[in-house]
Amino acid sequence: MKNDPLLEPFQLRHLTLRNRIMSTAHAPSYQEGGHPRDRYRRYHEEKARGGIGLTIIGGSTNIAPDSPSVFGQLYAGDDSIIPWFTRLTDGVRAHGAAVMCQITHMGRRTAWDDGHWLPVAGPSGTRERAHRSFPKAMEPEDITRIIAQFAAAARRCQQGGFDGIELLSHSHLLGQFLSPLVNRREDDYGGSLDNRLRLTLQVIEAVREAVGPEMILGMRITGDELSEGGLGPDECVEIAQRIAATGAIDFLNVLAGAPYDDLGLAGWVAPMGMPAAPHLSIAGRIRQAVGLPVFHAGGVADIATARHAVAGGHVDLIGMTRAHMADPYRWPNWRAATKTAFAPASALATAWIG
User: What residue numbers bound the domain in which 259 lies?
Assistant: First the structure.
């Protein structure tokens, strides 16, 4: 298609992306010892070889021992991961794609009987039905420690050669502090939006200080929890605006839903039989309200839907993550535009979304 909006380059600060298609962060369970070793690297190299503009690796990469892996995530809580990061970023970039890493603390969205068997941490003692853990309400010392661990993990990503870092808020620790469904605190981190947003802003500030002004930094946020008593669309817009106002964030990756139980998870990562791109308008609403690039993924399995998302001004980059698990070489327009040589597709296993 001539003048295809999906094939237009996108300028993200100093980084030029060759097109508007991305693979969002997910956990393919290829990690070995918490590291992205050869199989993990080759998985993302194939996406790059197929012509994608940006791949975000490390879905739910953990930053602390009390945020253990429960579906095959990476662990960026110590320096042993840096050499593996470097091999992966060099490999992906050699095929012309940009590469970023997502980092998080999962808060209550994990299990207590895994990893180091440490107590699960959260804003309050509210149980998550999906993972069945009763979190301990974080003390001031926990908050200070986790802020520092976010900054240290971000520095390791930078040392590993990534083009950028994505902080994960949606449904994980930062998002749990934001959500009235989870946060029942009565101190400076609970109650008002100012208080519930405090940890997010402190983490952003610490990470930006750790990686300096040049590193691209984004955040995966909620545009609407779609649940009674949860974050609504107006409050999510205000949160996005206040994050943007820090000047420290370069893009927002907008999702919707509250995956705190099986029904919520099905609403967030909708099965393929559901309508295409059900939350696209939610991402578009955030884009209209902030002066930052907006990314989005969710139920986009075909080129026509992806093209509509970009051409209609809903988003700047669109994710087709599950489509690329099935076939990273499936789009002939990319092949013509990128002049890439294509090898036979490797077997790509279905991944858990982080």
Answer: 5-338
